[in-house]
Amino acid sequence: METGEDSSCVLNPETLSGKDGRTDEDSTEETSSKAVAAQDPEFYSHAAAYWENIPATVNGMLGGFAHINAPDISASDLFIRSIFKMKNPPGHGRAVDCGAGIGRITKHLLQKHFGKVDLVEQCQNFIDRAKDNFKGSKKIGKFLCLGLQNFSPEPNTYDVIWCQWVLGHLTDEDLEDFFRRMGYGLKRNGIIVVKENVTSSGTVELDEVDSSVTRPENLLLDIIERAELRVLKNIRQPNLPKGLYEVKIMCLKPKKA
């Protein structure tokens, strides 16, 4: 949902969570994947309320860890360049920034690689700031103010769907459904990029402050598998400060064309 990348994305290091800027100590509770998957209307409303009060700045998007912006973007740039070198790579036509916040990733990464970039973000304050930031830009397409649980792209729309530090704001069930919808929204050879924190405890960690979860890698991979996606690449984000959650960058593609 965004209120992500930049909104939901706060880095949750392992002591921070890879969400844009949080530590393990910020996670107030451990919970089971079954509990995470349970539909709870307040899970979404609490998150929306939290992000409404966050400053529409890079530091706000990264949970007070603005200094990780450079290594984050650098690793993402190398990753996306490696994707374009794959056999049958995605095109450079159109991408979407899911949980775009104020457009941090779009500004420093996606608009450099794609002709058009759409931004999906549920916080109107962030959308408004993004519109100001990109005023006059010919690279920006649509601004969609909605949560990712409600985002359904038209078929054959995107070359790359970028999801960073936001998927912890979706329940397990909604995340699986989200992945399925994104698969339908891809162009031929299109891919989904996931960049998320993962726990080292092997359990799901709930952050009651911003109403999000950080999943262990095996659970995230299980949800991806259930959504009929396959993992083409799976690497660790390098050069983050010690104490942060481990951050994985994955390239996904539908199993069936």
Assembly state of the chains shown: single chain
Could you give the order of the helices and strands?
EEEHHHHEHEHEEHEEEHEE
The unreliable regions are 5-19, 23-29
Count of distinct strands:
12
Whole-number total of structural domains: 1
Which CATH class applies here?
A: Alpha Beta
CATH H level: which superfamily? Vaccinia Virus protein VP39
Count every helix, treating DSSP H or I runs of 4 or more residues as helices: 8
Strand order of the largest sheet: 6-5-4-7-8-12-11
Q: Whole-number radius of gyration?
A: 16 Å
Keywords: Methyltransferase, S-adenosyl-L-methionine, Transferase
Pfam families: Methyltransf_PK (PF05891)
GO molecular function: N-terminal protein N-methyltransferase activity
InterPro entries: MeTrfase_NTM1 (IPR008576)
Question: Which structural traits does this protein have?
Answer:
257 residues, alpha/beta, 12 strands, 31% helix, methyltransferase
